[in-house]
Design a protein that fits this description.
2 domains, single chain, Rossmann fold, alpha,alpha-trehalose-phosphate synthase (UDP-forming) activity, about 45% helix, binds adenosine-5'-diphosphate-glucose, 17 helices, alpha/beta, Trehalose 6-phosphate synthase, disordered C terminus, Glyco_trans_20, 6-stranded parallel sheet
Length: about 475
């Protein structure tokens, strides 16, 4: 069995106290066969390293490189998070392009390639994650690496009309086609990628067929990411009875409870969600004193100016809403920017009558799936979900909203808060069935089968 080599921007190093994130959990079966995971250590050094430090842990070995401060600024803060992230989330107005950042992006990708090439065995399968590392396959090929290399994009893609805003747009598409497999979260993203291929490279793809580029086949397909729903459901049930779960329950004091859990990121649509909550209290006064909304918005990318601006806006909006509607014994909006442990989150979701997931654009959004998984099937809550999240392609029994229309979110909040038990159970049953079908494990299996060349174009393993 070939070894799997994962490459991503960050590595969940156990020695750094990293919690097992979605990808780590999803890959646990893969790790049993032995695997290597390469990424940035999270440390800054005088120079960007081109040889990795190895942290052997048994079956899963980690390899890390340090970045220089200048490369961190240009590669991570600059091109990755001030150009590619806003572009791929349909926010071209937030794009801050700088040629030096672009150079930094290239040179860090070359450093990754050098560090990885030294560690490779001939039959390793290389699986590269996300927009930080798009040019990595090309950089590895330049060093003579012949292994199969796959790329999975966790974030959305954009149609040619938006992609053309990017300086060097065509070059980036070519970099994506240097892989053997290119995976997207949702059909819409794949569709937009095909639109770019047609417009920039004059490539028309027959549905289900690989793309032929420079004489090589490139498999392009969707591989929707999922969670281990049953494990999360068990965790939620257990956590609802924990100390934190109990404290939350006491503090809600019999009121209806709505929850939002996001990174503090402009793609998550938080200002519109806050505004929608303000309208709810204004337009439906019956909810005043009777509903509490908890927003957990973990601080993220604080080096990027736009994130600092967003934080100020949310501080202001939350203050305004509470100032206007609170009473001496009721605070309508609880807003915290600290991260919460996974176990506590699971328990909090279970207590919430409404789960608010309203991003302006999102690759998948795993919080939507976690909220559904955490519900008590006998008394489930209602998911309010943006139609611009990848998750909405599948989770159609949620209340689907347009996140750009705060009043539509308000109406959805109201509908969710008053929804009768039968309808809640009916919707939840269907949603739970869906999140158990597309899981973390099925995502990994399907992608790795495609990468190993043992899958048909539908992602099903062939009989060989
Ligand atoms: P993210 O943009 O980080 O990920 P999301 O999928 O919602 O978005 O969250 C990833 C994980 O982080 C989830 O397990 C969630 O519970 C956790 N998380 C989020 N906010 C948190 C908070 N405030 N406190 C604690 N934990 C929190 C990117 C893409 C997504 C895609 C994922 C996976 O942007 O579209 O779903 O990758 O592919």
């Amino acid at each position: 069995m070939a070894r799997v080599v994962i490459v991503s921007n960050r590595v969940p190093l156990p020695s750094k106290g990293a919690k097992a994130g979605g990808l780590t959990v999803a890959l646990k079966d893969v790790f049993k066969q032995g695997a290597l995971w390469l990424g940035w250590s999270g440390e800054l050094a005088a120079e960007t390293a081109t040889s990795a430090k190895i942290h052997a842990t048994g079956k899963l070995d980690f390899a890390t490189i340090d970045l220089s401060e200048q490369d961190y600024r240009r590669f991570y803060v600059g091109f990755a998070n001030s150009v590619l992230w806003p572009l791929l989330h349909f926010q071209p107005g937030l794009l801050e392009f700088d040629r030096e950042d672009f150079e930094g992006y290239l040179s860090v990708n070359r450093a990754y390639a050098k560090a990885l090439a030294e560690l490779l065995r001939p039959d390793d399968l290389i699986w590269v994650h996300d927009y930080h590392l798009i040019p990595l396959a090309e950089a590895l090929r330049a060093l003579g690496v012949k292994n199969r290399i796959g790329f999975f994009l966790h974030v959305p893609f954009v149609p040619a009309s938006v992609f053309s805003i990017l300086p060097s747009a065509e070059w980036l598409l070519r970099m994506m086609l240097a892989y053997d497999v290119v995976g997207f979260q949702a059909r819409q993203h794949l569709h937009d990628f095909e639109d770019c291929l047609r417009n920039f490279l004059n490539i028309a793809r027959q549905s289900g067929e690989p793309i032929w580029f420079e004489g090589r086949p490139v498999i392009v397909d969707t591989f929707p990411i999922g969670i281990d729903s049953r494990a999360f459901a068990r965790q939620a049930k257990k956590a609802a009875g924990s100390i934190a779960g109990h404290r939350l329950f006491e503090s809600i004091a019999g009121r209806s409870f709505m929850i939002g859990v996001d990174r503090l990121d402009y793609s998550k649509g938080l200002p519109n969600r806050f505004e929608a909550f303000g309208y709810l209290l204004d337009r439906f006064p019956e909810h005043r004193m009777h509903v509490t909304y908890l927003q957990i918005a973990a601080r993220s990318r604080e080096d990027v100016t736009e994130y600092q601006r967003l934080k100020h806006e949310l501080d202001r909006l939350s203050g305004e809403i509470n100032g206007r509607y609170a009473d001496f014994d009721w605070q309508p909006l609880r807003y915290m920017t600290r991260a919460v442990s996974r176990a506590n989150l699971a328990g909090f979701h279970r207590q919430a009558r409404v789960g608010l997931v309203t991003p302006l654009r999102d690759g998948m959004n795993l919080v939507a799936k976690e909220y559904v998984a955490a519900q008590d099937p006998e008394d489930p809550g209602v998911l309010v979900l943006s139609r611009l999240a990848g998750a909405a392609e599948d989770l159609t029994e949620a209340i689907i909203i347009n996140p750009y229309d705060p009043e539509e979110i308000t109406e959805a909040m109201h509908a969710a808060l008053i929804m009768p038990l039968d309808e809640r159970k009916d919707r939840h049953e269907k949603l739970f069935e869906k999140i158990c079908r597309t899981t973390a494990a099925s995502y990994c299996r399907d992608f790795l089968n495609a990468l190993a060349g043992t899958a048909t174009s539908t992602g099903m393993p062939t009989s060989q």
